[in-house]
Structure formats: C-alpha cells, structure tokens
C-alpha cells in the first residue's frame, strides 16, 4: 500500500486547511485509516481515524469540533478538514492505513505533510 499526503502549508490562526491522502496498491484489506501528527520534540499522536466498513470516526479531544475526517472510497482518498486552526496544531501530519492480512496487522505510513499555524 502506498500513501501520499497533500494539502499542508502555512495558515494563520483561525484559518482552514484540507489534507488529502491518496492510497494505492492492495487497498482492499484496509480496515481503518487515520491521521497522526508529530510536533517537534513530541511523540506522534492520533488526530482522527475512520473505519473502512462502517465509516465510524473518532477524534482526539484537542481537535473535536474543529477537524473532520472523511473518505471517498471511489477515489481511494481520505481527507482531513481542519478549521479554526491554532498554533498548537502545528506539526507534520501523517496518513496511516491499517491492514489485516492472514491474521496479522500491518501499518502503512505516508511521507508526511507540514502544517504550520502562525499566531
């Protein structure tokens, strides 16, 4: 599975960005996808996730009500709409796909896209 993120950039506080993650390869075994972020000196953290079968979503408390995760199965693309951005949202954002094959879980990652929110 290959994952390619796009849509990062520099935005002022209060602004919006939409991240995209295009997947290719053996996508039929993907059970869930998600967005993670990592700020300098901090651990990578889950921002939002969505399951493939039901479309159930979950969000980190810090982004609830501001970020929305979605997917377009026909385009094999996942999105993260980020509104009301804050400086603390500044990080490299990574796309993740979790596959289950032969009873084994495999995690795949994109290359990351930088999001910078200025105050």
Question: What would you say this structure looks like, in words?
Answer:
The protein is mostly beta strands. It has no helices and eleven strands.
User: What string, H for helix and E for strand, traces the elements in order?
Assistant: EEEEEEEEEEE
Label the overall shape.
Answer: globular
Number of strands: 11
Rg over alpha carbons: 14 Å
- Roughly how many Å apart are the termini? 37 Å
Q: So how many helices? A: 0
Tell me what portion of residues adopts beta-strand conformation.
over 45%
Give the % helix.
under 10%
Largest sheet: 7 strands, mixed
- Mean pLDDT across every amino acid position: 95
Ranges with pLDDT <50 over ≥5 residues?
none
Helix/strand class: mainly beta
Strand and helix layout:
Layout lengths: L1 E5 L2 E4 L4 E8 L5 E9 L6 E7 L5 E3 L7 E6 L4 E6 L8 E11 L2 E6 L3 E6 L1
Parallel strand pairs: 2-11
Antiparallel strand pairs: 1-3, 3-8, 4-5, 4-9, 5-6, 7-8, 9-10, 9-11
Brief descriptors of the model:
119 residues; mainly beta; seven-stranded mixed sheet; four-stranded antiparallel sheet; 60% strand; globular
What is the gist of this entry?
Helix content is 0%, strand content 60%. It contains no helices and 11 strands. The strands form 2 sheets. Strands 2, 4, 5, 6, 9, 10 and 11 form a 7-stranded mixed sheet that branches.
